[in-house]
Amino acid sequence: MSELQVADSFLVANGKVRGIELHRDRFVGSCAAVGVSAAGFWSEQAGRLPGFGRWFPRFELRMSGELAVQLRPAPPIGGRVRVAVHEGPDPRTAPRTKGPDLELLGKLKDSAPHRADEILLLDQDGTVLEAAYSALAWWEDDTLCFPPSDRPLLPSVTAQLLRRIATSQGVPVAEHAVTPADLEASTEAWLVNALHGIRPIHAWSDSPIDPLPNSQAATWQSRLESLAAPL
Question: Which of 93, 164, 194, 208 sits CB 3.0–4.6 Å from 10 for a disulfide?
Answer without folding.
Answer: 194
